[in-house]
Design brief:
Shape: globular
Helix content: 40-55%
Strand order of the largest sheet: 8-7-5-1-11
Number of domains: 2
Oligomer: single chain
Number of helices: 11
Strand content: 15-25%
CATH architecture of the largest domain: Up-down Bundle
Number of strands: 11
Largest sheet: 5 strands, mixed
CATH class of the largest domain: Mainly Alpha
């Protein structure tokens, strides 16, 4: 199982010993995890030290290392140079992809994202008469090639107030809700980054994001359809009074990678679906046909309980409300 390892305690030292990543405090080992079980490593701590061999072995295992700022947003990712036996061919196809193909791929991504946003609002809407999700659903029908009408931004203006209240503003430098979102998106970005590496694609060559200072534009593109799952976890955490970044909320957000979802090949954890998703992008570049593979939509009751097992939010009745054609998370590893 790919685990997300989060290093958040100050003054730790990371090393390698016989196929394990070791964690030491004051020269005494306090934890270890097999390298083969690591899907990504996220570093938040101050005073963290590493042996050079840590980066070599993690790179050999295709594991991205995410370095985070105090607001839990990633500021750098250490990316393995060798990722896939077809990497050179795949990257050439990616670099030479015609603009119409990239626009069609972006249309599919934005349609999936807004569809998932609408589903989440529907799942969390207690007042069935309001049906506030319908305004978002209507927007999905207006997405054009390349999202020329910027439906993504139009949806965001409706989505955030419906999800977190009219006073909420999405701010990467904000506290509380925004910090939880930042941390969750960091987890998601690392999962997508590793999947892109495994698919032989280059993270800098994005479909839509093209900021010259963003070395992971493609990862940011490809994580868009899965962001609402992070939003669902954060909403559910806040609902039960868990509003701060701490060991418990980190553990819950880290569980994102193993949330079970149905797909064309049966039930699999999120990180497997993301691997299939990035592979379908690579295949689209190879064939010139935009055919992305998404997981199926989770049920409303699954979304209402996401990240809140064992709390009052998990006491909602289960019912068969799974439909749609598109979806993600549940157990990671945090080393404190």
């Amino acid at each position: 199982m790919d685990r997300i390892v989060d290093i958040s305690t100050d003054g730790l030292h990371l090393g390698i010993y016989r196929g394990f990543l070791t964690v030491a405090k004051d020269k005494e080992e306090v934890g270890r995890i097999a390298l083969d079980d690591i899907g990504a490593l996220i570093a938040h701590a101050h005073g963290l030290t590493w042996s050079h061999n840590v980066f070599i072995r993690l790179a050999e295992n295709k594991v991205p290392v995410v370095l985070c700022a105090q607001n839990h947003a990633p500021i750098a990712i250490i990316w393995p140079l060798e990722g896939h036996y077809h990497q050179a061919k795949r990257m050439q196809a990616q670099a030479e992809a015609p603009l119409p193909l990239k626009k069609q791929l972006w249309k599919q991504i934005i349609t999936a994202k807004v569809t998932m946003q609408a589903r989440l609002i529907e799942a969390l809407d207690k007042t069935t008469k309001s049906q506030s999700h319908k305004s978002l659903t209507m927007l999905t029908r207006r997405v054009r090639s390349g999202d020329s009408q910027n439906i993504e931004a139009q949806a965001a203006r409706k989505y955030w107030p419906l999800l977190f209240g009219s006073d909420f503003r999405r701010d990467r430098n904000g506290d509380s809700t925004n910090s939880l979102l930042n941390y969750g998106y960091t987890i998601l970005r690392s999962i997508v980054s590793r999947a892109l590496c495994a698919s032989g694609l280059h993270p800098t060559l994005g479909l839509f994001h093209s900021n010259n200072y963003n070395a992971f534009a493609l990862a940011d593109d490809m994580m868009e359809p899965f962001r609402p799952y992070v939003d669902a976890i954060v909403h559910n955490l806040i609902k039960v009074g868990k509003t701060e970044i701490n060991t418990e909320t980190k553990q819950i957000l880290t569980s994102l990678s193993t949330f079970d979802l149905e797909g064309i090949e049966g039930v699999s954890p999120l990180f497997i679906h993301i691997n299939r998703f990035t592979h379908s992008l690579a295949t689209s570049f190879d064939t010139g046909q935009a055919k992305l593979v998404f997981p199926l939509m989770p049920s409303n009751s699954e979304l209402r309980r996401l990240g809140c097992e064992g709390t009052e939010a998990a006491a909602l009745p289960e019912h068969n409300d799974r439909d749609g054609a598109f979806a993600l998370p549940a157990t990671g590893t945090i080393m404190e």
